[in-house]
Amino acid sequence: VYDALAGTGTDLVCLAGYMRLLGEKVLCAWRNRIMNVHPSLLPSFCGKGMYGHHVHEAALKRGVKYSGCTVHIVDETYDTGPIVKQTVVPVEPGDTPDTLAARILPNEHKTYVECVRLFSLGKLKIRDGIVYIEE
Question: Can you list the alpha helix ranges (DSSP code H) found in the chain?
Fold first, then answer.
């Protein structure tokens, strides 16, 4: 990843569905400038192996009343970086992993685009591991 990005002038690295941890070289070069989207309200239903339908199955099995998506800054471990923005999606009676995923996915797209926009406008500030959105 580093070799592909080095020297390109990349300001922000956007991950979606990338299932590996990034190396220290990438994390250092783009510290606080790597974003990912996750199909749950972090810190719930996250970590290695928690992606796609696995997340929705776990949420429904647990009986949560709300799920959603989170855009976060990527750090050294899975899904633990500072949270940029979250969108809540109610769980409806009779939901299946498929129906819940179908309602969350459009919110992932919208929320991610909004976070990239905020980054490009210089409105995201990270202090002490917390993301602040400046107006």
Answer: 2-5, 24-29, 52-62, 97-120
b/e map 68-87, b = 16+ CB within 10 Å:
bbbbbbbbeebbbbbbbbbb
Is 38 an active-site residue?
yes
Query: What residues in the chain have per-residue pLDDT under 70?
Result: none
pTM score: 0.95
Q: What whole-number distance in Å separates Cα of residue 51 and Cα of residue 46?
A: 8
Residue 118, judged by CB atoms within 10 A of its CB (0-12, 13-18, 19+), counts as: middle
Q: Of the residues 38, 54, 56, 109, which is catalytic?
A: 38
**Domains defined for the chain, CATH in brackets:** 2-133 (3.40.50.170)
**For the segment 8-34, what is each residue's pLDDT rounded down to a tens digit?**
999 999 999 898 999 999 999 999 999
